[in-house]
Amino acid sequence: MDWKKHALIIAIAIGFILGLITGLSAGKAASVLKPLGDLFIRLMRMIVTPLVIITITAAIAQIVDLRRLGKLIIGMFIIFIFLSALGASIMLWAALAFGPGVGVGLSPPPGYTPPTPPSVVDLILGVIPFDFVDIFSVAGLLKAIFFSIVLGLAISLAGEKGKPIARALQYLSEVILKVVMLVMWVAPIGVFGYAAWLMGTYGTGILVAYGKLITLDYSVSLAFFFIVYTIVVALSKRNPIVYWKNIIEPALVAFTTRSSAVTLPVNIRAAQRIGIPDYVTSLVLPVGATCHMDGTAMYQVLCAVFIAQAFGITLDPSLFGTIIVVGTLAAVATAAIPGGGLLMLATTVAAAGLPLEGIALIVAIDPILDMLRTMINASGDVAVATVMARVLEGPKWFLKSS
Ligand code: ASP
What we know:
- The chain is built from 18 helices and no strands.
- It is mainly α.
- The chain has one domain: Orthogonal Bundle (Proton glutamate symport protein).
- Helix 3 (66-98) packs parallel to helix 13 and helix 3 (66-98) runs antiparallel to helix 17 (366-393).
- The two termini are 15 Å apart.
- Aspartic acid binds next to helix 15 and helix 17.
């Protein structure tokens, strides 16, 4: 075994395990270690917006053949939406069958009337920056992606004059990935701090109160994670073992940082190790980090059903389709930050005509659910990237990789 090559992942895994042990034994006192995690998150947040803007623009500007670009973007979105809707449907079935919220016995607030959910038009318009500065914050990543796609396209359309800019962007991509490499060495410390804090704060007590919800979420989501992504990678004609081996590092980072945006740089490294071509990686992973969240789609549906059951509200079967569609769209619109899905839960809960007060039930345990859904969100992007590599490159991408 090449220890040098694996030093970082070993250090991250050790940090994670030590963090769990520290959190379990120190309890709430372990929250003093949280700033270590915050330090890592800040460094990652610092680079994520320039990383997204530079890599996406560079990737699109490089593709001279616009038909190929169209194929990549359309194919990618079809797979993203299909996988999220599949996850949401499976979770809806499981939540109805196992009834995690049945018997909680809350009553809806007096005079309760369901609020109007934001329209699909509002959700779509939200992708376009209102002001140019909107693209510079982590919460505005979707807007940054939109701008980068338009800019990249313009560079490509500019022909000869655009070429030097495309080349400069490629060099810039290399530079920004070097920054990622430097920051990654702080990851083991950050993962340690967060693992200790989460375990210390949400340890055994909380697991009893919300046991059913968490158990259902974890079992269904993990089954989806292992089965569906293995099938997706197998469809790309790649050995799924190569995928699983390389996904451990981003999965651990996603699980502890609870942010797909923060995990993006680590995901890019994993995709490079798998041998996915750079132009596929630099489009599918940043766009996927913001728009493709299978874990979040499943979470939206599960929480909506849990809230209905907790309030003793019977969901009319005519609402099932709405819950799946809105849950999937809410996941697309979710910001890739910790708790982003919790903010969007209002959309799904409102669309299902349920009391928004139910969201308070979820808040306490959201970080525990967020860890898993973020891990699935981030890992799913690499799985889709393997398929897109296969679609665009044919069988030859397989030969390029180790
Ligand atoms: N934390 C999730 C992510 O970054 C988003 C969510 O809260 O659902 O992928």
